[in-house]
Amino acid sequence: MKQNPRDIPVQESLRAGILARDGFLGEDGRPFPQIIQDDTETLAALHITPAEVAQEMRRLTGMGIAGNGTAQADGFQITVEEYMGRIGCPFRDHRAAKRNTTVTDLASGRSMAWSDLSIHLIAEHGFFQGKGSAYRLEPAELADFLKLA
After folding, report:
1. Residue 1 pLDDT > 60, yes or no?
2. Spacing of C-alpha 97 from chain mean position
3. How many helices (H) and strands (E) does the chain have?
4. pLDDT for residue 24
5. What is the rounded distance in angstroms from the CA atom of residue 57 to the CA atom of residue 124?
């Protein structure tokens, strides 16, 4: 996949140390448009869009916020932790609150965690981050966890 010159500033912003200490790509060597395409295709095979995944993530985070940091709903335990400040989107279109949400499926004990920036990246850019990134969410696993698949 040939890199679009418009993507060069974004690719730079995704690297470690620019916006986030560890960056957004992990050890993934694919260009970010390829990561997005591959992840979108994974979800399309399940008849789910990145926007639908992000909508459910946002809903659960909102429940945790409404419960002053903790809530139990729909078979999940939700914990939201907020930190001071905001973090910029590497696509340069948003600044997200520094907030992390951890959701535990009460039946299985399985947990997944995400940040507000992760929700934005998935909703607006279809970007689940590169393999090995600290905040990488595998699209099919996340859809299954959220009971969308």
Report:
1. no
2. 13
3. 5, 4
4. 82
5. 13
Quickly count: other Cβ atoms within 10 Å of residue 143's Cβ.
21
Ranges 18-22, 45-49, 80-84: which has the least confidence: 18-22
Give the SS3 label for residue 99.
Answer: strand
Q: Encode pLDDT of 52-73 as tens digits.
A: 999 999 999 999 999 999 999 9
Q: What b/e string do you get for 34-50 counting C-beta neighbours within 10 Å, with b at 16 or more?
A: ebbeebbebbeeeebbb
Residue appearing with tokens 């929700």: 119
Find all residues with CB under 8 Å of 33, minimum gap 6, and list them.
Answer: 1, 3, 4, 7
Residue 147 — φ and ψ, nearest 5°? 65, 35
Q: Tell me the CA end-to-end span of the chain in Å, nearest whole number.
A: 29
